[in-house]
Amino acid sequence: MLRNGYVGRAPATPEYVRRMQSLYEARQTCFEQDASDDYDAEGQQLSMLLMGISGMGKTRLTKRWAARLPKVIYHEELHVYQIPVLHIELPSDGESLTGFCNSVFRAIDKLVPGANYLDEFGMKGRPTVAKLIPRLERILHMHCVGMLICDEVQNLTNSGKTQNTVMTELVTLSNVLNLPIVFIGTNKSEDLFGLEFRKSRRVSGFGGEHWDRLKEATILEDGRVQSEWREFLEVLWQYQWTKHPVPLTEELLANMYWCCQGVLDTAIKMFAAMQARAILDGTEVLSKELMLDVYKRDFKLMHPMMDALRNDDPAQLALYSDIRPLSMDTLLTDIQSRARSRTSRAYTTKPDTPGFVAQVATALAASGFDAAEAVGAATEVAAAGTAKSLIEATQQGIAKLTPRTTPSKAKNRSAKTREQAMVEPEPTGRPGDLRYAVKVAQFNGTKVLEHLRTEGLVRSLEELLDAT
């Protein structure tokens, strides 16, 4: 695709000049003109779609392939900075052409020395889309961009009725500039490319790939059994950092697949989490029991998705058109936090420890309760003497200070919340977005606190007590 896309685009040639002139004239005469009607006569179509569930390495593969090429090539005799591959993410709202153009300008600014296209063309004077698109086409052509990789293409489905806006311009870019485009997205992208035959045809010029999860085993035509999952884990299993490495047994292989369902990102993070737990608790060995406990405790948010994959239920899978990978940093931080809590003051401080009431009151006040009420509740908890540690005492104090809700009202509120959350929420693309955590919790029927912890937005009670 990269080689064929460069045919007829060499700078300082008649073809290059004619194309630059045609870009100017087409946009001057009729901005809405769609050059796709004349494109079939020019040659092969240069677009493709790489689609599959999150965590299978689609983006990583394309970035590693692009890393084999120079990011930018300076041609001194022509004073041209050539960009072989440009990788961008489509705007999260799915319909902002301005956001799309600015993303391209920003990416080129990072590659070309002294370039300031974002401020000059994207921000200055707040240009309209009618002005942005011609500028974008001219910049892409001027820097001889060889391939445009559009990641997170499923974002285009977020725009509802106007989802054709960005896609139409992308198709036009490919047609007018003879620019190859690779679309990368989750299975939700199928909703977009299946809507209209013309779009599907655009991504089938060089073919489309559905990057499915790895199968546990596949029987070939000659009767042999092939297992990419086994081959993958045999390589992964070599990276054991524990003091007592164990061989990859059939039992471990099968249970690993049960937990991860062939999703590479989940398997890698599961393997790392197991080792982190084994190192921190001192056992220094991997086992089936450890694996299942890590899956149960550290991968709770992924249980509904894994169940949907495990059961291969179309109704369940329809609820999770995109599987959001867990953050490795958040996962390991949570494991470390629980390991530290075993020796934390929150668990070692007893009711007979001097200053126990003051520490409980401080923890309650830090949780947002009135200082006077916190002291009263802490005194009551200490007098009861049933708390075995500072953390239990704090929990009892919170229970005393929190108004109780009747079961019937709580049940009705829970049912109403689930009814309001029938549509699966989409990530906003903004780090630390509290609204997304609330929507995910409502949709899954789980606690908001779990999602806030996953996003690293709240501190654990153990850390809070240690800080006080």
What would you note in describing this structure?
By secondary structure, this protein is α/β, with parallel strands linked by helices. It is about 55% helix and about 5% strand. It contains 24 helices and 9 strands. Strands 4-5-6-1-7 form a 5-stranded parallel β-sheet, with helices on both faces. Strands 2-3 form a two-stranded antiparallel sheet. Helix 19 (about 370-385) crosses helix 20 (about 390-400). The termini are far apart. The model is unreliable at about 30-45 and about 195-200 (pLDDT under 50).
Please give the structural blueprint.
Elements: H1 2-5, H2 14-29, E1 47-52, H3 58-66, E2 73-75, E3 80-82, E4 85-89, H4 97-111, H5 117-123, H6 129-142, E5 147-151, H7 164-177, E6 181-185, H8 189-193, H9 197-202, E7 209-211, E8 218-219, E9 225-226, H10 228-236, H11 250-260, H12 264-280, H13 288-298, H14 303-311, H15 314-319, H16 328-341, H17 345-348, H18 356-366, H19 371-384, H20 390-401, H21 407-420, H22 434-444, H23 448-454, H24 461-467
Parallel strand pairs: 1-6, 1-7, 4-5, 5-6
Antiparallel strand pairs: 2-3, 8-9
